[in-house]
Design goal:
The protein is 37% helix and 18% strand. The chain has 500 residues and is α/β, with parallel strands linked by helices. It has 2 domains: 335 residues, 3-Layer(aba) Sandwich (Rossmann fold), CATH 3.40.50.1820; 124 residues, no CATH class. The strands form 3 sheets. Strands 1, 2, 3, 4, 7, 8, 9, 10, 13 and 14 form a 10-stranded mixed β-sheet that branches. Helix 4 links the parallel strand 9 and strand 10.
Length: 500
């Protein structure tokens, strides 16, 4: 073939590069709504969308999904308080606080928090915060629709410090784009979200000069010294007795609820009974544990019998485990004779395992009871009512994130953000803290929370800015309707007081 003919032959066109996945770009869907709270009609705007975190040169790092609700009939939005809310895990989306506590709609449960038939339904949430504040629900990277860019780099955000930095950057961007720097600003975190909140308040104060008017800690854990050594197996550290002491009152509350306490305690009001148990736990029981094998047989027997009366655990069982009760063992043992287990997140719930024998739960009955209703109603609500579409799975609780979480900043040390919170309270003298506790919470017991705050070295003035509240429910106290009503009243009062 002549050379000229060769050069004139058409070359196959190169295929155009594939478009980036939709979640690698920003988007925003807005809709207008109205709702009625305490007889007052409140117009509000919903926003559901993604914000990208970028390097200063524009390189994309992560895609943050959020849902925001802002009252739309106010002249100056910056004058309204704004709450940034998230759950914990690590690895949990914000669906629980969103669809259970603070958003305009909530999952319909009965007064005790028990769900109806599947797939569940949503109802108006008259306990929403929208009558006193705007609310932004944040899903950290790897949860909800939030993702790392590229996906294989996502694991770098499954990290104590980088999680705080990335959530903090989202908050900074939101405040800037929506002109909310002048608003009274609040954080609301639940469970590990309280650990994040304390670290986040310190980070944003140092990095951007963002001062919060208040922090709402729902089922708090700031100092992991008070809890399990391994949060994947929920076991306590051998030789470390503090968790057994702070968990005991919640074991007793659970036994009281299920009618397993000694006969003389069954008719006592819960709070009266708990006052007795708490005094004994931090007195005679703690002293006995600290003595270890030096405790004589007679004293040991007396402690075990009292412990059995408070917790419903058999005497021989307590002897076998040397007066030390682990969380999941308690959940398995309390109602073993009935073929039932009790919940960890909320010990009012019961379930059943394949085998009666053994120490471990197959799963948490309290999570099993409601998670399907929250997942189904959220996915439908996001598309049908808020108008947001995505083919990504909404990660309600990502085990990938939870199992990969890195506490590198606490190598050879206990995870603890209570000192960060103390420092923020010292530097920001206008910031208050609301701590919400559930008496039937075996994940973050109320006495563990009290212990942490009583060991932070707060001044009298700082202690006056800490508000402890208590509810006869579990980790997510808002699933219990009477507790939800009181919780909403407490949070609204806190926001209004801290914003004044």
């Amino acid at each position: 073939m002549p050379e000229e003919a060769k050069s004139s032959e058409a070359k196959p066109a190169e295929a155009p590069p594939a478009p980036p996945p939709p979640h690698y770009e920003e988007d925003l869907v807005e809709r207008d709504h109205t709702m009625v709270i305490n007889g007052t009609e409140i117009p509000y705007r919903s926003q559901a969308g993604r914000v990208l975190l970028r390097e200063e040169d524009g390189k994309k790092l992560a895609s943050f999904f959020f849902t925001a609700y802002t009252r739309s009939d106010v002249d100056d939005p910056a004058a309204r308080p704004i709450v940034f809310a998230f759950n914990g895990g690590p690895g949990s989306s914000s669906v629980w606080l969103h669809m259970g506590a603070f958003g305009p709609k909530r999952v319909d449960l009965d007064d005790e928090g028990m769900p109806g038939p599947l797939p569940g339904r949503l109802v108006l949430n008259e306990e929403s915060l929208l009558n006193v504040a705007d609310v932004v629900f944040i899903d950290p990277v790897g949860t909800g629709f939030s993702r790392g860019i590229p996906r294989e780099d996502q694991k770098k955000y499954h990290h104590f410090k980088r999680d705080i930095e990335s959530v903090g950057e989202f908050i900074r961007i939101y405040l800037t784009r929506h002109q909310r720097w002048a608003s009274p600003k609040f954080l609301a975190g639940e469970s590990y979200g309280t650990t994040r909140s304390a670290g986040l308040a310190a980070h944003l104060l140092d990095r951007h000069g963002i001062y919060f008017s208040g922090i709402i800690l729902v089922s708090a854990i700031l100092n992991f010294l008070t809890g399990p050594f391994d949060t994947r197996t929920w076991t306590f550290s051998v030789g470390h007795d503090l968790p057994y002491v702070v968990f005991l009152p919640t074991y007793a509350a659970t036994a009281w609820y299920h009618g397993r306490v000694a006969a003389e305690h069954r008719k006592k009001p819960l709070r009266e009974f708990l006052a007795e148990v708490e005094a004994w736990a931090f007195g005679e029981y703690a002293t006995a544990l600290l003595q270890g094998d030096q405790l004589d047989e007679r004293a040991s027997r007396e402690v075990i019998e009292r412990l059995s009366g408070y917790t419903g655990m058999p005497v021989d069982y307590l002897e076998d485990y040397r007066m030390r009760i682990e969380i999941l063992r308690f959940c398995k043992e309390l109602r073993r004779s009935d073929g039932l287990t009790v919940g960890r997140l909320d010990s009012r719930y019961t379930g059943s395992d394949r085998f009666l024998a053994g120490d471990m739960l197959e799963s948490d009955p309290s999570n099993d009871a409601i998670s399907g209703h929250f997942a189904a109603t959220f996915n439908d609500y996001m598309r049908s009512e808020l108008g947001y579409e995505s083919d990504l799975p909404y990660e309600v609780l990502s085990l990938e994130v939870h199992q990969a979480w890195d506490y590198e900043d606490f190598k050879n040390a206990i995870v603890d953000t209570s000192e960060s919170l103390r420092q923020v309270m010292s530097r920001n003298r206008h910031m208050g803290v609301l701590v919400a506790n559930g008496f039937f919470d075996l994940a973050t017991p109320h006495k563990a929370s009290e212990y942490t705050f009583s060991h932070m070295g707060l001044t009298e003035e700082q202690r006056q800015r800490v508000h402890m509240t208590y509810y006869e429910a579990g980790h997510m106290m808002y699933v219990h309707r009477p507790s939800h009503r009181q919780f909403a009243t407490d949070v609204r009062s806190f926001i209004l007081g801290a914003s004044a």
